[in-house]
Amino acid sequence: MKKLIILTFLLQIAVSFCYSQQKPAPYGNNAAAGKYYNIRGIKIYCEVYGTGKPLLMIHGNGGSISAFSKNIPYFAKKYKVIAVDSRAHGKSTDSKDSLSFEMMADDFAALLDTMHISKSYVLGWSDGGINAILLAMRHPDKVIKFASTGANLWPDSTALTPATWKDMRDHYNSDKNKPRTTARQKNEWKIFMLDWLQPNIKLSALKAIKCPSLIICGDHDLIPVEHTNLIYQNIKKGFLWVVPNSGHGTLVEHAADFNKKADDFFTLNSF
Q1: Do 136 and 209 touch, CB atoms closer than 8 A?
Q2: How far apart are CA 83 and CA 125, in angstroms?
């Protein structure tokens, strides 16, 4: 699992750093705030914090609700935060043998329907950022505004740094023929293959996004600034923020600034 997490955007390192800096509520394992929902044939786990306008938070590959430990306390003061474990992640179950970002985006739309939420703000990190983009494309009536940090549109060495792509290629070549007998082994490989083969979003498809969109990356992110800029340029109501002195974990490495900037974007008419 450790190797998988390293290859899929080092998310666990960011989460570990988050816990080393503070001792928040047990986000992702809080029975008082958590609930399972039957969504599209699977069980989706989410935790709800605060009251106000809804804000859906979507984590990255190999992660869980706990990825937002530095963000939930801030936003829960004025939003109804809906922190969700994506399909096949955390406490959310998925026994199918394949996974797609489109499938996951449809899950989130169905979750909002099940929770009787007509539309929501959305904050997505890494794979969650991809899901935020696709949710706005596929279900535009569900998204008020979204902020997406560390997202890519296709899975090659132009959308990922060459070193990141090479590590993923090497992992695929070394492990593709290994037997996987347990449910955990199969799930971990399915999650890895999600990022190895996907997403596959054309720039022209971003025209379907109608809502204001804040596109974010770190200035030394695992997603090149040039790629993030392409995403921003192809969204009509897009805004761009390249976070200085930041890697992939913008919302962890610079939590205070990130929280305020995202909040300002959600509440103001401009960025």
Answers
A1: yes
A2: 12
Domain locations in the chain as residue ranges: 2-267
- SS3 of 204, please? helix
What token pair was written down for 188? Answer: 């971990």
Helix ranges, the chain (H): 2-7, 11-21, 72-75, 101-114, 127-138, 162-175, 183-197, 225-233, 250-253, 255-267
CA atoms within 13 A on the CB side of 35: 10
Written as one letter, the residue type at 22 is Q
Per-residue pLDDT tens over the stretch 84-137: 999 999 999 899 988 999 999 999 999 999 999 999 999 999 999 999 999 999
The whole model's pTM is what? 0.90
CB atoms within 10 A of CB 162: 11
Give the single-character DSSP code of 208: G
Task: Say which amino acid occupies 270.
Answer: S
DSSP for residue 56: E
Tokens of 249: 């974990």
Which residue is it, tokens 């928040």? 24
Cα angle 247, 90, 146; round to 5: 50
For 155, the 3-state DSSP assignment is: coil
Q: What are phi and psi of 123, to 5 degrees?
A: -125, 120
Evaluate whether the domain defined by 2-267 bears CATH number 3.30.1850.10.
no
Read off φ and ψ for residue 99, nearest 5 degrees: -150, 145
pLDDT tens digit string along 169-209? Answer: 999 999 999 999 999 999 999 999 999 999 999 999 999 99
